[in-house]
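Example 3.2
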Amino acid sequence: MKFNKAFYSLILIVLVQVSFGQLMGQSQYNLSSTQELKVSGTSTLHDWEMITEDARGEAKITTADGLITQIEKLSVNFPVESLKSGSNRMDRTAYSAIEADKHKQVRFVLTKVSSISANTIVAEGNLTIAGS
């Protein structure tokens, strides 16, 4: 299975399940220790998923009545080799494709929030993986 940077920019989906605790007013939050981050994708052979429990992150969030009203900043990063698929072969292939020996971290930085509703946040950001 061969991966390239275009592959990641087209089909990489990053799902962050974050627990920032109770949100009140505008505050600075750090990613809790009970989080899990999943990276999912597809190849010519099959769909795949890798999970890390070693992500670090921070956010500046404004809330009202217990709901998020604004996200001023948000960033998440984790070591490439903390991603695990359950298959050593898949892990090695992914680390090679991501060039983990040269680029040790994956990083996401929020650049724009388009909309916020009670259950959905539509946002954009820069994902740095394999150095770009």
